[in-house]
Amino acid sequence: MIIKFKKWFDELAENAILVKKAKASAKGDESKWGKEIWRSSEKNKQIKMKFRDEGAKLGLRSRPSYVTGAGEWLYDFIWREFDHSGNLIGVKLAMEIEMSDMNLKGIRYDFNKLLQSDAEYKVMVFQLKEEAEVNEALDNLHMAFMSYQAKAPAHYLLAGWCTRKQKFIFHDFL
């Protein structure tokens, strides 16, 4: 699944760049697409919509859901599994998205919430300006994971959006 998650993030980035190029072209110069902004609120919404849609294909229920109007539940985004009687049997994915707070303290605060989840997949999405900053955050979050004592088995994906490079940088681990 981690490979699929990375693919979905890359698809979101590619689509955002196409939109940015179209906006720049409409203003008369497509070569200035890099000056167009993929706003944090748009990223957040598009990530949730993509994962909601893909989760629905897998028979998973999402929170929040733009389809049902259900709000967030414990984390910024989750996939939940239910049995035939409607009993919650598990959380397949827990995701924290921190796009508005571009500092490590805020990112780490949300990551610490993920550490406590018993979800099979834990995804942390954040953004920083420079590639070196993203890589430093990836290292820092991995160290936080290594330090946490009460780990539930899980697959982790860290997805850092580098605003300068206009791409996601990934780090995954068990």
TrEMBL record:
Protein's name in the database: Uncharacterized protein
Q: Which organism is it from?
A: Endozoicomonas montiporae
